[in-house]
Amino acid sequence: MDNFSTDITYLKSLELFPMQNHVDDFLSFPRPYHILSFIAEGNVIFKTGDVNIKLSAGDIVFIPQGTTYSSVWSGNIIHCISLFFSVKSNSTKFCNKKFPLQKIENCEHLLEHFVYINEKREQSPFLSIGRFYELLEKISEHLSYTNVPLIDERIKVAVDYIDNHYVSDFGIEELAKLSHMSTPNFYRCFKRDTGVSPLKYKNNALITAAIMLLSNNHNMSIEEISIKLGFKSAAYFRRLFKETVGKTPSEYRKTEFNATPSHHSASKTPDCLKSNSIAE
What residues form DSSP beta bridges with 56? Predict the structure, then answer.
């Protein structure tokens, strides 16, 4: 499986049942992880950009990391099992590929995988993870994507370093040295290959980690999150978060919490998947 078994850095499951008719609005909040949702009962329409995708019982929706969308859920009974996950930036299944939000039809035979992963996540986390790899291997064969250009190997060294050390204090000169390039040339090539400056890339990684903490650690204060992520002050963390996301951390947490239906089973990330590369 091309070493795929070492790629997952974050996994959480959530079963929503029963749900009432409702709307989830994440149009202003890019999702910080990939999501696979199995629609067991009911109907849902996802909207992203100008695209509307309709799903019914037996369908799976794949929502790639960074996607903004809204969803309208309806039906006499609504039942959904969702898996939230992140992968390493150099994952053989995901790197250099751009995935759209998409539907996979007629997947009734995969329901047992979702149920197993959700039920085993606390008692037998390794069994749950193993089944998730099996599920992802099956689903990845049906995902559509477009290839994106490969980045310069020297820049990839810097990208990997930021992905694994974004909490640390380092500057562009250190990244350029790691890449064996002059600072001006490194800056130009980094922005060419990633679309953003090294500082912006690092800040985006920090904010993504902050979103994960806000979403999964409701008892953790904003000050505690800012300290955990290495910010010099909570005030700067709040300012950067609002500049990036459009809302303060508190406003985002409230929106994230309210967008999730209240009737659901508890979710937990297995300890064996907690990693320095993904805040938890």
Answer: 43
| Residue 40 CA to its chain's centroid (Å) | 22
pTM of the full structure: 0.77
Q: How many domains does the chain have?
A: 2
How many residues appear in the chain?
A: 280
* Domain assignment present for 267: no
Q: Compute CA distances 73 → 23, 77, 122, 269, whole Å.
A: 6, 10, 28, 26
In this structure, what token pair is assigned to residue 125?
Answer: 């986390």
Question: Any bridge partners for residue 12, and if so which?
Answer: 84
Give the model confidence (pLDDT) of 75-106 as tens digits: 999 999 999 998 877 677 787 889 999 999 98
Q: Are residues 230 and 253 in the same domain?
A: yes
Other C-beta atoms closer than 10 Å to the C-beta of 101 total: 20
Q: H/E element holding 193? A: helix 183-194
Render pLDDT for 134-145 as a digit per residue (tens, 0 to 9). 999 999 889 999
Quickly count: other Cβ atoms within 10 Å of residue 67's Cβ: 19
Beta bridge partners of 55: 44
Residues of the chain with pLDDT under 70: 1-6, 90, 256-280
